[in-house]
């Protein structure tokens, strides 16, 4: 082939590719929807991709550019996304018209990772509805109460470790490592019925595998590849989770089910509920692979995600001593009322504890956005007063920018300030407070997560003081490498044993 012919082919292909990309990135311009001009191929993610800002602040910066718009356009690489910033419209989409937007974009390829792809978050349509219906009884108040003592024992191990190690002089910890051990033990005992003490045995396989699930730069890359370039991800066989993880959890679930069948063991947990449904003639078929997938989902959500929230909570009570003192007083009062043995009802009745946790989740929702996938055509009203209605079609993506909304000064005065009192004197507005999601797709384990967080804080303040260290970053700086909320360079805090504590708190 002559050089001139080859050059012509390359130029033609380049021009074709240029106009293809241009057509993809002119979607919102054609519809006259407010948006920021995207970077070819990278869309509006360029600041995050080049690690100039966190994903949370990347989306929030654009959110703040259009204060008068009901929604705006955002390009996730070359995929156009409708970002809804109006609370009433979020309710309309997520609740009133849920059937039009009932699915999520999955982040796992079902052919490459058949087990992980069955996670409850990624399931769609009737399969999701059946699984959600089956698993919901695992998280009722009665089930939470049954698991309360198990979680308290994990918290006792947690504080015993800190008291012995830190003493009166104190010790500086990267809190994510310590708190993750507690979270690991809670999930192991409540989901799998396995007693694990990660403080005495930090090299147990549950904990070591859990640490590999921490979403870093590489997993963030795979996450976005599966969402935006699924064929490329499939071609290269990119996995979110290793085969070692698949095999470990399948073996654990298989052996647990076998032991319970043979010995007649019954526990109030997720595995038990799926075992009881195996032989019924209606609903989904629960083979070991399906049971493993849902148990793994529970572990995935409960290990890293809840541990991260608890670390943000520890950080805020460390740098806000007035909050810590006020919360500790409530803790001591509850311990006095319960003779040093806190109950499920007593912790749920702690109003200031509730306010502190709510404020942590307001400032630090784990994700920058909640996503929905359109499954039925739907007409959105005009984005602006001079705009026109827009028809959203099946396959189109919708985002609710939870992080930006929960830090919007329109809804929260002094929105950057950590102020639990804001949740004491007024009712929570669920239209602008969505850390666990909204509508039928709200996180199924939110009640469990809240109980786990509150128990940890009670036991921590019962016996320890938490202080800022020279390594502590205040104000908090968010990690720019991951798509999930995290702290840059870790959560460094000093912990010391309380010098004076009432006898009931020892």
Summarize the structure in short.
The chain is α+β, with helices and mostly antiparallel strands. Helix content is 49%, strand content 8%. It has a single domain, classed as Cytochrome p450.
What does this entry look like structurally?
It is globular, with a radius of gyration of 24 Å. The model has no long low-confidence stretch (mean pLDDT 89). Helix content is 49%, strand content 8%. It has 506 residues and is an alpha+beta fold. It has a single domain, classed as Cytochrome P450 (Cytochrome p450, Orthogonal Bundle). The strands form 3 sheets. A 4-stranded mixed beta sheet has the order 1-2-7-4. A 3-stranded antiparallel beta sheet has the order 3-9-8. Helix 8 packs antiparallel against helix 14 and helix 14 (288-319) crosses helix 17. The chain contains 19 helices and 9 strands.
CATH topology term: Cytochrome p450
In terms of DSSP E residues, the strand content is 5-15%
**Biggest sheet architecture:** 4 strands, mixed
Radius of gyration, taken over Cα atoms and rounded to an integer in Å: 24 Å
Oligomer: single chain
Domain count? 1
Helix content: 40-55%
User: What do the pLDDT scores average to?
Assistant: 89
Strand order of the largest sheet: 1-2-7-4
The CATH superfamily is known as: Cytochrome P450
CATH class: Mainly Alpha
Task: Please identify the structural class as seen in this structure.
Answer: alpha+beta
User: What is the tally of helical segments?
Assistant: 19
């Amino acid at each position: 082939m002559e050089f001139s012919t080859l050059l012509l082919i390359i130029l033609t292909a380049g021009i074709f590719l240029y106009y293809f990309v241009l057509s993809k990135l002119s979607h919102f311009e054609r519809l006259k929807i407010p948006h920021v001009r995207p970077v070819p191929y990278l869309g509006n993610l360029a600041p995050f991709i080049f690690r100039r800002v966190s994903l949370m602040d990347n989306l929030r910066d654009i959110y703040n550019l259009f204060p008068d718009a009901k929604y705006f356009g955002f390009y996730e690489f070359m995929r156009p996304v409708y970002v809804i910033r109006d609370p009433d419209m979020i309710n309309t989409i997520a609740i009133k018209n849920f059937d039009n937007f009932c699915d999520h974009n999955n982040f796992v390829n079902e052919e490459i990772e058949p087990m992980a792809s069955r996670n409850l978050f990624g399931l769609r349509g009737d399969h999701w509805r059946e699984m959600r219906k089956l698993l919901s009884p695992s998280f009722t108040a009665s089930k939470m109460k049954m698991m309360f003592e198990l979680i308290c024992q994990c918290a006792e191990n947690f504080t015993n470790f800190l008291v012995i190690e830190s003493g009166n002089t104190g010790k500086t910890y990267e809190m994510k490592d310590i708190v993750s051990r507690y979270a690991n033990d809670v999930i192991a005992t409540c989901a799998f019925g396995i007693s694990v003490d990660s403080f005495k045995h930090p090299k147990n396989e549950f904990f070591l595998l859990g640490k590999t699930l921490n979403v870093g730069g590489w997993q963030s890359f795979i996450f976005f590849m599966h969402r935006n370039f699924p064929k490329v991800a499939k071609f290269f066989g990119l996995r979110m989770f290793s085969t070692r993880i698949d095999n470990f959890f399948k073996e654990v679930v298989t052996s647990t089910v076998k032991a319970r069948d043979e010995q007649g063991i019954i526990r109030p947990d997720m595995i038990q509920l799926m075992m009881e449904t195996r032989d019924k003639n209606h609903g989904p078929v629960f083979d070991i692979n399906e049971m493993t997938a849902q148990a793994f989902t529970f572990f995935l959500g409960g290990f890293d995600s809840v541990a991260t929230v608890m670390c943000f909570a520890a950080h805020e009570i460390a740098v806000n001593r007035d909050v810590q003192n006020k919360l500790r007083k409530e803790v001591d009062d509850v311990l006095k009322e319960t003779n040093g043995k806190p109950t499920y009802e007593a912790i749920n009745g702690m109003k200031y504890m509730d306010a502190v946790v709510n404020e942590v989740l307001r400032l630090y929702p784990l994700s920058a956005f909640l996503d929905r996938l359109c499954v039925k055509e739907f007409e959105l009203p005009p984005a602006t007063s001079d705009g026109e209605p827009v028809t959203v079609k099946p396959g189109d993506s919708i985002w609710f920018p939870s992080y930006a909304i929960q830090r919007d000064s329109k809804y929260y005065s002094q929105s950057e300030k950590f102020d639990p009192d804001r949740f004491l004197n007024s009712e929570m507005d669920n239209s602008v407070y969505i850390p666990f999601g909204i509508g039928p797709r709200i996180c199924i384990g939110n009640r469990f997560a809240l109980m786990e967080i509150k128990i940890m804080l009670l036991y921590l303040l019962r016996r320890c003081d938490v202080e800022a260290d020279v390594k502590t970053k205040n104000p908090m700086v968010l990690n720019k490498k991951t798509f999930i909320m995290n702290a840059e360079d870790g959560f460094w805090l000093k912990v010391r044993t309380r010098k004076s504590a009432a006898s009931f708190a020892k």
